[in-house]
Amino acid sequence: MPAKQTRVIVALGSAQTLAWGSTYYLPAILAVPMAHDLDVPTGMVFAAFSAGLMVSACLGPLVGRRIDRFGGRGVLAISNLVFATGLAVLGAAGGAGMLFTGWLLIGAGMAMGLYEAAFSTLAGIYGRNARGAITGITLIAGLASTICWPITAYLEAEVGWRMACFIWAMAHLVIGLPLNRLVVPSGSQSVARESQDMSHTPPGRGAERPSLTMALLAFVFAVTWFTSTAMATHLPLLLQEAGASPAVAIGAAALVGPAQVAGRLLEFGILQRFHPLLSARLAIVAHPLGALMVIAFGAPAVIIFALLHGAGNGILTIAKGTLPLAIFGPSGYGFRQGLLMAPARFCQAGAPFLFALLIERYGAAALLLSIILGLTGLAALLSLTSTSKVEHA
């Protein structure tokens, strides 16, 4: 891998670690102290978080189209400014109004600064050869929860949740903004060049029924992001409901991050030799398998479940970037990613609230829903070959 590409991967991966850790993973640690200090129900904090995810879903296609036309460097840099503003508003919140305003701003930043924008940026720079770079940044950012959850918890304990938000906001200005603005190349010349080349050649074995293929992929991404968000929000509690002690539950949940990295190393090494459709099929069965073990055996299976869920989720994160690239190519990739991920963002928005209700009523048996979703997602991936002939990456 060229040194310049390695620098881009490290910079984007580090910026993505900051972006995920200071936004998406924030409620798991700060929701309770936020709610207590603002004198609102904890559910209202998650409702504000969900509203931010809805904003992200709505803005995703527009952001993707912008990246297709002009490249992603500017968009990623602006995301750091938006994140910083949203976190500052959150830290200064005095009631529900500013709480929702802060999360809505953060939601706009998510549309511009999380994986979809980063993947689109890499597709614009490297074209069909972006699979390795996509895997590289997810390898680094896969540790976002493992790194940032303890930092957030420490900051909340030492200086309070408000100052924690302010410190994360400053990190976006001091760390994230320079990484995205100064290291990431500008423009999207490779996509434009490849699109021009493809216009002079007959279509390859791409998606023969693109609308159906898009619908299947959107469904797969929606169910997997629903489960991923539900686990990110409730995993420690869910493992306690399965019979694990609080210490064991937290320790097992902390293994998700390393397991994600392990899964991505497997993708980077062995699975990269195969079409990403195979990786996605293998990965999507990991969560249902682990969840069935927890339901059947309880506490003794929680570590295995966390490892399987993390590994599968890690590979699926890559597949969300590499599958559309392999099937449709890099032309229009950003806009297509925005469309594909919009249903996933809406599912994410409802995941914390819905799963909280299920856990409250059914305990660990709430995992039956994620098992069913995972298996239906697998069915969609298995049917993909009969509806869309994809070419080997």
Automatic annotation (TrEMBL):
Give the Major facilitator superfamily (MFS) profile domain ranges: 8-389
Q: Which UniProt keywords apply?
A: Cell membrane, Membrane, Transmembrane, Transmembrane helix
The subcellular location is: Cell membrane
The UniProt entry, under Gene3D superfamilies, shows:
MFS general substrate transporter like domains
Q: Which GO CC annotations does the UniProt entry carry? A: plasma membrane
Give the main localization category.
membrane
What is this entry's stated membrane topology?
Multi-pass membrane protein
Q: Which GO terms describe its molecular function?
A: transmembrane transporter activity
Membrane-spanning parts: 45-63, 75-96, 102-126, 133-155, 161-179, 215-235, 247-266, 278-297, 365-384
Sorted alphabetically, which PANTHER family does this protein's record hold? CHLORAMPHENICOL EFFLUX PUMP RV0191, PURINE EFFLUX PUMP PBUE
Protein name as catalogued: MFS transporter
Gene source species: Paracoccus onubensis
